[in-house]
Design goal:
By secondary structure, the protein is an alpha/beta fold. The protein has eight helices and twelve strands.
């Protein structure tokens, strides 16, 4: 079955171009032209990836992304006419996986779509595969247990002190990568490459933002973390 892509965009010419280009690549394409319809279509067709404009009628792209992130783990590429760093950070904070500034080439968009879909497939394969020796020896391959923290790979959920969290997709992928490499110092660049992919053009702030979110969920005192430890000048180390 071909991957399903939802385009959320209100510029007719751009919609036609996106739909044509993505259909030619073999994707099943659905379209929504405002924020409210985007939620309706996403819930109906369950897309594998979403291309989401920021400026939309009725409900803006940030709010649509925030709502969808509670309902789906499908990658979201946000489109914006502005290139401000703050816009990119806001997009990441509401759960976007990637960001493109208009105008952009269809070749670049398609490359990012393929990279995100490939990354999802690889993560699923990695989670389904047996452990490769980097996991703590007493942790089963489908379930990591660190005292009051449980990471369930099959359910993609985390339990901390009895509270169940359904993390944002990149939060969960990051936590799994850290857990698989418990006790090892991981640089921000390595984390970006392994969790976001070598072709991701965001900076190390992306890692820091996601680590901050994780700490708020799995640390007893997020301001003084003991589970995800900062290694100054390098990156992070997971202590379990």
């Amino acid at each position: 079955m071909n991957p399903k892509i939802l385009i959320v965009e209100d510029e007719p010419t751009l919609v036609d171009t996106l739909e044509y280009s993505l259909t030619r690549q073999g994707y099943e394409v659905s379209v929504a032209t405002d924020g409210v319809k985007a939620l309706e279509v996403a819930r109906r067709v369950t897309p594998d990836l979403i291309v989401l404009d920021v400026m939309l009628p009725h409900l803006d792209g940030y709010e649509v992304c925030r709502i969808l992130r509670q309902e789906t783990s499908a990658p979201i590429i946000m489109l914006t006419a502005r290139a401000d760093e703050v816009d990119k950070v806001v997009g990441l904070e509401v759960g976007a996986d990637d960001y493109l500034t208009k105008p952009f080439s269809m070749r670049e968009l398609i490359a990012r779509v393929k990279a995100l879909l490939r990354r999802v497939r690889l993560v699923r394969e990695e989670m389904a595969a047996p452990t490769n020796g980097t996991l703590h020896p007493d942790i089963p391959s489908e379930r990591f247990v660190f005292n009051n923290l449980v990471i369930d790979l099959s359910r993609r959920e985390v339990t901390f002190q009895g509270i169940v969290f359904h993390l944002k997709p990149k939060e969960f992928d990051l936590l799994v990568f850290l857990a698989r490499n418990r006790g090892i110092v991981l640089s921000r660049d390595l984390i970006l490459e392994r969790v976001w992919g070598w072709d991701y053009d965001g900076g190390s702030r992306t890692v820091d933002v996601h680590v901050r979110w994780l700490r708020e969920k799995i640390e007893t005192d997020p301001a003084n973390p003991t589970r995800i430890v900062t290694v100054r000048g390098i990156g992070y180390r997971f202590e379990g």
